Amino acid sequence: MKDTVSQILTNYLELNNRRKTPERYAILEAVYDMDGHFTLDELGEKLSEEDKFPVSRATLYNTLKLFLELRLVVRHRFQGTTRYEACYDNNGHSHQVCTMCGKVTEIKSAEITKTINKQRLKRFHKDGFTLYIYGICSTCQAKITRQKRQQKKSTI
Hints:
It contains six helices and five strands. It is 49% helix and 19% strand. A hairpin with a 5-residue loop joins strand 3 (92-98) and strand 4 (104-107). The longest helix is centred in the last third of the chain and has 18 residues, at 138-155. It has helices at 2-15, 22-33, 40-50, 57-69, 110-118, 138-155; strands at 73-78, 81-86, 92-98, 104-107, 129-135.
């Protein structure tokens, strides 16, 4: 897959007379090495610490903006934070977002994907989707239950 996304980037840069900088390719490789969602800072840390290829925050931001245009990366805004995710050849997926702690879990559901793919949209060609399901995770629900029990005990 890395070869394919690298070729997409190369084709775009050549067609648009833009420079093929080592930074762009290093960032692309790092994005596709990341596991799941990541922030700009996490990507910068990976490049600088693991890959020994530090780049400026502005370079990261501008390069991710390019990758968004090329649909190699998708941007998510989860409860006040911006996270990115490699998305080439990813037709759609869903996320569970805990409204208490902010934990995000990616879920795979064949039923959801099938239902969305069946939808015929008027004057629109869909090529992917992202679904957000908001609620309370089991860890936070357990904390709420413990707190309620403690409150009942203290009023008795």
